[in-house]
Design a protein that fits this description.
The complex is a heterodimer of chains A (160) and B (136). Chain A has a domain at 2-95: Beta Polymerase, domain 2. Helix content of chain A is 16%, strand content 24%. Chain A contains 3 helices and 6 strands, in the order E-H-E-E-E-E-H-E-H. Chain A has helices spanning 13-22, 80-90, 120-124; strands at residues 2-7, 27-35, 41-49, 54-62, 68-70, 93-95. The N and C termini of chain A lie far apart (49 Å). Chain B is an alpha+beta fold and 136 residues long. Chain B has a single domain, classed as Alpha-Beta Plaits. In chain B, the strands form 2 sheets. In chain B, strands 2-3-5 form a 3-stranded antiparallel beta sheet. A two-stranded antiparallel ribbon of chain B has the order 1-4. Chain B is elongated and about 65 Å long. The mean pLDDT of chain B is 89. The chains are: A alpha/beta (160), B alpha+beta (136). The interface between A and B is medium-sized, with 15 and 21 residues.
């Protein structure tokens, strides 16, 4: 089982998808995005050749303030739902594809998979790890020592 | 008999009990827990709550010094949040947490999915790697 990664500029995104399809990578495995913070967004498309058992991972990037990539739907109709989900979760526009909302309630007004989207659960619940060994819930306001902050949570999220 | 029970029975008839190595639920061996907080801090779901207090033990020898130990007051796992990743078990330096293959843990409401230390202790019985069970 082999897997090749191809990083392409976004102008070549659709052409790269067409090329991978033409090679026999006809099975759509995944289309999604990654929020790279200051480096913008990475859009990923994984295609699989079920006959030769090889995979291709296509990747392209777009800046945060210009979050759009060409749609691959003209080459791969099955990617439409994935693009709709990615568009609403990351706020990325897929050019040439009117991405209707797919999962979020109407008027949600935010992109929950962006790193700057604060999770309500993280704001509402206090991090259990802020206690030191030998401490209980009731001891917390009394001790003024600098506390650990939860890994992977941006500054200021564990406010309470 | 409900459809759920029928489904469980059919599954057991078809596949038998899950293998003893499967990730059913997490068991706690309180005697090994030092309240070090590592599992609670590493848990990506924040589903482990630990409360503990300090106690000072008198010196064990004539010239020894008093020793401060942490005593566990509360250890709870919220299985409504847990995603069975097992990171807590892997980071525990004292072998206090173990996988148990028990899997029938549905609860009528979310509070029933918070397992306190006394609930967590009982899963040790069939946890294959727990003290006393090795090799069974």
């Amino acid at each position: 089982m082999t897997e090749t990664r191809r990083d392409v500029p976004r102008e070549e995104w659709l052409a790269a998808a067409r090329a991978a399809l033409a090679e026999g990578h006809a099975f759509l495995d995944l289309l999604t995005a990654v929020d790279l913070d200051a480096e913008g967004f990475e859009v990923l498309l994984r295609l699989w050749d079920p006959v030769r058992r090889t995979g291709v991972l296509l990747a392209t990037r777009c800046p945060r303030d210009d979050a759009r990539v060409p749609s691959v739907v003209p080459a791969l109709a099955g990617a439409a739902w994935h693009e709709r989900a990615t568009a609403e979760m990351f706020g990325i526009a897929f050019e040439g594809h009117e991405t209707a909302p797919l999962l979020l309630p109407e008027g949600f007004g935010a992109h929950p998979l962006r790193k700057d989207f604060a999770l309500a659960a993280r704001a509402a619940k206090r991090w259990p790890g802020r206690k030191e060994p030998g401490e209980s819930e009731g001891d917390l306001p009394a001790t003024r020592r600098r506390r650990l902050s939860p890994p992977g949570v941006p500054e200021g999220w564990d406010t309470p | 008999m409900s459809g759920y029970d029928d489904a469980v029975e059919a599954l057991q008839a078809a596949q038998g009990e899950p293998p003893s190595s499967s990730r059913g639920i997490i068991a706690l061996h309180e005697g090994n827990c030092t309240s070090c907080m590592l599992c609670a801090r590493e848990c990506p779901d924040w589903c482990i709550e630990i409360d503990s207090h300090k106690e000072t033990l008198p010196p064990e020898t004539e010239r020894g010094r008093p020793r401060v130990v942490h005593v566990l007051d509360r250890f709870a796992i919220d299985y409504g949040l847990c995603m069975w990743c097992g990171i807590c078990i892997e980071v525990c330096p004292f072998d206090a947490l173990f996988w148990s293959p028990s899997w029938e843990h549905a609860a009528p409401d979310a509070s029933g999915l918070v397992h306190e230390r006394f609930d967590l202790r009982q899963w040790l019985a069939d946890a294959p790697l727990a003290p006393g069970n090795e090799g069974t």
